[in-house]
Specification:
Length: about 110
């Protein structure tokens, strides 16, 4: 009889400790997976207005998307491509979605 009382007390103590652990665990912030992307945006020809192209690309706004630095990189024959960085939250913005929105824009 004495032993069964001890087991019940231990089980109750374990349950309260588990409840404390779960409440403590639920207060921790969850990690948000993010990716850093480097996009190369190439113009049709050497007469494309690259400033307007950059403005058009950066006008894409989505929840979980942050545009970073950009620069013009020479490709050849006087043509330059736009290299632009972006940080995306993986659960909210997919690379396919971002590529689709970028290529749909008309400059």
């Amino acid at each position: 009889y004495c032993r069964s009382v001890d087991l019940r007390a231990l089980t109750g103590r374990r349950a309260s400790e588990l409840a404390q652990y779960e409440s403590k665990k639920s207060k921790k912030p969850t990690l948000i997976a993010k990716s850093s992307l480097l996009l190369d945006v190439k113009p049709w020809d050497d007469e494309t207005d690259m400033a307007k192209l950059e403005e058009c690309v950066k006008s894409i706004q989505m929840d979980g998307l942050v545009w970073g630095a950009s620069k013009l990189v020479p490709v050849g024959y006087g043509i330059k491509k736009l290299q632009i960085t972006a940080v995306v939250e993986d659960d909210k913005v997919g690379t396919d979605l971002l590529e689709e929105k970028t290529t749909d824009r008309k400059s």
